[in-house]
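Section 3.1 - Work completed
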Amino acid sequence: MSANVIISQNPLIQGYGLPLFAEIKPEQIVPAFNQLLGELDQQLATLEANVQPTWTGLVEPLEKLTERLSWSWGVVNHLMGVKNSPELREAHENVQPQVVQFINKLGQSQPIYNAFKALRANETWATLDSAQQRIVEAAIRDAQLAGVGLKGEAKERFNAIQMELAELCTKFSNHILDATKVFSITLTTKEETDGLPNSLLSLASQAARAAGAENATPENGPWRITLDFPSYSPFMQHSTRRDLREKLYKAYITRASTGDLDNNPLIERILELRQELANLLGFKNFAELSLASKMAPNVKAVEALLEELRRSSYDAAIKDLEELKAFAATKGAAESQDLKHWDISFWAERQREEKFAFTAEELRPYFPLPQVLDGLFGLVKRLFGVTVTPADGQAPVWHEDVRYFQIADETGSPIAYFYLDPYSRPAEKRGGAWMDVCINRATITENGVTNIRLPVTYLVCNQTPPVDGKPSLMTFYEVETLFHEFGHGLHHMLTKVNYAGAAGINNVEWDAVELPSQFMENWCYERPTLFGMAKHYKTGEALPEHYYQKLLAARNYMSGSGMLRQVHFSIVDLELHHRYRVGSDETPADVRHRIAKTTTVLAPLPEDSFLCVFGHIFEGGYAAGYYSYKWAEVLSADAFAAFEEAGLEDEEAIKATGRRYRNTVLALGGSKHPMEVFKTFRGREPSTVALLRHNGLASAGVSSAE
């Protein structure tokens, strides 16, 4: 009897409300999921046997079932990101296959799929509102993409491909990790470290000690430089030793392309399997399959956007390179007329320092976290009429630095809550910044009483923690990152949709989900917002005007090159998943070099094996979807332009536009197609004009690299 008592007290089985973080332990994960998946299996069987093609007989019970799983699995995944440990990893690894298996089983359930189709064909269909209809449509589409319509051999083949692809993607990723670790350069003389910043010398001597040089110091070396980005990138930017930059660059661009760690055969196999998968599901190619669940209507529309951005950025990128050569010439650089790939970062950094004459470090004292939060919360009150207040102590947290906040509407009623985990903890927290769902907004009926369950979100950043009695002092990039993640959070928290399946970010197409986050970044450069938060943490003095002007100027530094680079990756990704076929007279690398002729201004070296480390499309979720970054940026720039057109100095106009944005982009969530949502806000379809203008590319003519 006692074992059951213990299990029923397992905090991971709770399934609703705020997780009891203080009570959750890794050893509870396996028993919790054994019990949970057993119960869900039975519930699924019962639902399949008794399913009715109605909202209450199908969607509601199915949502209850999936929410139990996503609640528990969500808590485990959240802890994997913020409180990682060997014990947690092992438990996660242990239960992940069973979770994936259950999700596949659910996705391929014939009775549930048939019930969704019957619901859509039923005369009651017209009585459902747009959010309900979108939830049903998405369920039918997702089941089809999960192979529900396949029978016998085709279904077995489909599942086998999914398994093989999962293995190949993991292998691809491990090869990159291992190939990155294999190579290093050890510097032993001061002369070899010329130009390197102190932060890199510290990192490099630490790497040397870890590799066995016990007495390595930042002052006297030896210094070990690796292909790991925090080591590689500053070395390429600052080392005056051109020969060493060349050596490192060539090692970097040939990672995972030879020997036991060669990713080339994996790339061919992944592309071949994706093509077969698409054919099994009735698509001509994988790009069409990928776009079936995105905002972009078809491959042609994506190609048209990418071509427009390519033409607008190509000449600007050529000009960037010419200016860089001219700058290097003024410094007497022998290589100035023939800059190579390993010279670009170095000279761009020298030019940036001279042109804008400030470093990221100089701005930190003006951006202490508490003040930045005040500025951010002031902005959302101004734009959307909502008030953010601390609610620390009202929710269990996973670390003492985590804060909890409430958002209230104009009447003072709470409408949402969020956790903020701001500081870096390298030992247990993954890098980067992200937003994740803790609780979805939904109508909940219990014991005959109906209430709205309020949304809760996790916002996670990785900035410098408070040191020696100083607050956390942020770089401007960290400020932008916080605004970005808060934009995702607002999308989740200010939703007015009362069905979990379409509330907030749920059921929002992949290439539209970055709209609210990228939109918020624009406000960091808006004068009232910036000066409202940028004050010296000791003296309270406002950020000097010359810094503001430099920030504005630096925003578009080499933006043509930056834009062209993203376009290059996007077109390569699309071409490989759309027209390319394994076994044709081109290799994937040939395809990339062919496309580079019109999408780069410095052609890649013949040995450049970038595809072998293009993890986004070969291990992550961006296959035939890398364009999404630019697609969403068009939307977010155009949305911000609505405020510019209303007049950023006109407080009333800003307020009115802010309320309209809140009631469309933020409120409608996944209840309508993103194009409809955008048109409701903007009164028209999106245009690239604002994006090009914000990037300083508006006047760019048609490029010459046709």
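Second construct:
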Amino acid sequence: MRRIHKCLLCLMAAILLMVSWSGGGLPQAMAAAQGSKIDAVLVMDASNSMKNSDPDRVSNEAMKMFIDMLSTTGDKVGVVSYTDRIQREKALLEIQSEADKKSLKEFIDQLDRGPYTDISVGLDEAVKVLKQGMDPAHAPMIVVLADGNNELDPNTGKTNQQASEQLKAAVDEAKGSGIPIYTIGLNADGKLNKEALADLADQTGGKSFTTSSADELPQILSEIFASHQQLNIVPVKSITGNGDYQEVTVHVPNGNVLEANISIMSSSPVDLKLIDPSGVEQTIPSANVLRSTSNSYSLLKLLQPEQGDWKLHVKGVSQDKIDINLVFNYDLELMMDPPPSSVKAGDSIAIQAYLVSNGQKLQDSELYSNMTARLLVKDVDTGDESEVELENKGDRFEGKYQLPKEHEYELRVRAEEQSFYRESASVTISAKTGSTAGAGSQPTTPGKPDEKAFPIWPVVIGIVALAVLGAGLALLVGYVKKLNQGFVGQIVIEIRDENTGEKTFPQYKKLTSFKGKFNLHQLLQLAPELKETEKMVFRPGKNDRIILTNHSSAVVEKSGRALDAAKGTELKNGDRIRVALQQTDKTILLEYLA
């Protein structure tokens, strides 16, 4: 049951963040406002091979929690179960009540397994189910849980080539319709076809995750939190059951929360009591407090909860590990005013962004009070990225950005607080100028000889200048090449709370997506409480090594000794360092794996 518990927690994180991920890398056809409804088809590999990959039916529990996390009304969900044929399917069902969710979960519990497997069959049917019933105003998605391997029945006569062609056609149809495909690969038996599942996601703008054991699950989380999620899963507390009620505080940060989803993960059933911020005990379940239960989780959904500290009392079996997490649903978008259509290098453009709810500009100064915002700038020509802090005006974010070069730039604003963040849609502007004749040039008249003497000295000076310019260009090319130098390997991160001694699971952060440099704050998903790590910068070194330069107040230690990293310290494969933060009681443990 411990394995189910941990697997379900991370699969729940994966699926929830898939639902909330929009904008950025998704196809334009399916870009939807944050907080919009979704139409989802859940696709499950029901072949006998999954008995090894998923012996405890973690996939069933994950899918049921996915359904429980959805809004109380309006979303649509369908289910497709396949082997080398469609075992069972359920067309898109619009959720109008808890009875609808219960019906979907009972359907999942009834799914059987069978011989052979052909993912093209399941995906092809999922696309058809989605297109037949999806709402144009909703954001569509397909979630596939599988091991990515095919085993065709020789008696059908279907060849691997035919299966590949059917799969390609289904993927092309999904891509053309703006339907992202998200894949979760289950790899308990070590036979996961990771590349095949990743390819499905990459082609459609989705995301791919893998898990093989509880020890490997943190890598899934690092992949999830690197994507453009719009909701954060907030760890509330981990407790060990003692047979009595234990109190846990659940903080609702503002009045714009539509739903607060509290997941209680445990291997045994738990008893719950809930006290609202005014001190009144709430009935569970009731009109505004819904409860769902399964073999390894309980879920409380608070509808439009009052702002403040809620007290959750949890009674679990003695010695049972209980993990409690929180996800808020907001109906919020971040909008950025469009910059001028005509700009040139050196221009300073005004940036203004603000939150929108139900199409109306939000005036809630209390919500803004805990938020920070930054302008994210990408130089399209070079790939360089930079950030500019924006000023919080109480009902909007403002700032300025000066275009440094005659390049094309991609701009977007990111605003965040502890429980969520939003990113505006990207806007591309060009500061490039057209080709024009030099000022004051005098074209010669055809056929008329130039009566002036040939200018020897200007030519000589020009040659010398060109030589100097060539040397400068060589240095510049080397500098640009260094800026664009890539990284290899990954960094393993653990964060320890020095007050409690608790330590997070290791998170594996791949470095291959970075060019030139990145800071530690980026690896930590820009968590506000860890902001001082912005001044800890990594650059690529020689022989697959990396250089850490520390200009923050944090203390960097290696093998128990403090390092003077202000001028840079080199990390090679297997090196471990400890970063003691000064602005919060946390320590970050890093290991570089080349």
